[in-house]
Design goal:
The chain is about 50% helix and about 25% strand. The protein is an alpha+beta fold. The strands form four sheets. Strands 6-5-4-10-9-8-7 form a seven-stranded antiparallel β-sheet, sandwiched between helices. Strands 13-12-11-17-16-15-14 form a seven-stranded antiparallel β-sheet. Helix 1 (about 15-45) runs antiparallel to helix 2, helix 5 (about 185-195) crosses helix 7 (about 225-270) and helix 10 (about 370-395) runs antiparallel to helix 11 (about 405-420).
Amino acid sequence: MTLTADFFTPSRQSPIAMLLFLLKFLRITIRQAWPIVVSLVFSLRKVAFADWVIYVIFIAIGVLYVFFSVFSYLRFRYHLREGEIVITEGVITRTTVNLPFEKIQTIDFKQNVLQQLFGVVELAIDSAGSKKQEVSLTAIPIKRAEALREYVLEEKKSIIAEHQVEEETTQTTTSPSTVILNLSIGELLKVGITQNHIKSLGLILVFFFGIFEQFRRLTEETELADEELQNTVGSYVESTVTTWLWVFSIAFILVIPLAVSLVTTVFTYFNMQLSLGSDGVKLVSGLLNKKQRSTTLNKIQSVGWGSNPLQKLLGLFTMKIYPAAATTVKLKNLLTIPGSRKEQIDKVLETLHFKEKSGGMREHRISPAYYQRALLIIGLVPTVIIAPFIFYFFTWYGLLTLLWPVFIYVEALVEYQKWRFYTNEHILQTRYGLFGIHHKVIYWHKIQAIKITQTPYQKRNNLANIVCYQAGHQMRIPYISLDIAQQIEQYAMYKIETDEVGWM
């Protein structure tokens, strides 16, 4: 593919980048410094000339932000040079980033509402060997961004081909990219209904407790008397808590978490499309903030899928595709595909050749000590320590503490009964879960390191935990025989050293 000459001369981004820079600075300030700003405003209100001081401060901050936004835009340049992308930026200190094509892992597109309105995208370029995103171009016209990505990825393939005279890969056929999943509104609503509402409830409670704490601090700084505040709050609680307690409890437990999950799901996965072909995987999703992420097939380290009981009832799974990343910090590169069906998971596994290489899988169990130790350490020991205090202060309510070891025993036993791992000469696969069942599958040759750990109890009983590390991801198998753990370690090291297929 050929590009116009302006790609090879230093160029600025679209002028809309100035507005995006300004909004970014404001967002950072609001997210990190809003308690300080609110406290400062309340403190200054006690001063006679506070009004104009506050105005001056906000005007000065606004002017400073506009200055940095304009100069960030003016001093930002990007261009292509032979085999690399060059970025120059910095208002006060100038920084130049040279990013070789062969080190680029992914080039993803992101679009918020403003970027969609003005027809520009953010290019998020991720590379090997860094703990964070290497390069970000905030506002590039869509057609220009697509041409740039296509050119860079094609050039990368050519460079790699030049360095590898003979290269064997697991990919033996070529196929055009096709959409295998297009999440409709109906499917999107099903995904929202089957999400983890407990997480949504936790977020809501954290939010309200945070607001309450800020309100408490602000009232302490004002001249509102403690006695007046207590009388007001006490009167309100006495007159309303009996009537509305159950209403609010039901709303928080059922209605509000469900609504939050639905809204979050719609905003995150709206119009989600998963495309699959010999050139790789591409995932597009988002309503206000539209994201387009992609990865080549050889960069995929592992595939996971699972469902909770409600998802299983509807025939839905959440599939996760783990591309190579420099560190676990880059788990944001994980491709999460909710609303997947079994046939779509099978299609991904077939494309990555997991299906054809899954013959002769041997099933293994973990040790019963898994749930027995959980009962002892998490269930019985805390109960023995805490129960006397509960009995002393709350008398017969202390009997409720006896339910804790029962709960831990049932939970750990269910997990133990579901735990399996499977092996053959090509693949290592795990199966686990509590309320649902989850699977994860990897190739032996894509393991980069293995660690065997043992607690004192495990040493005495010849048991061990094993962790298989990949490029930014890991697979853990607990409470297995030490002999099996050592066999897994030895075989993985053998495959890493002798397999002709690279891990990427």
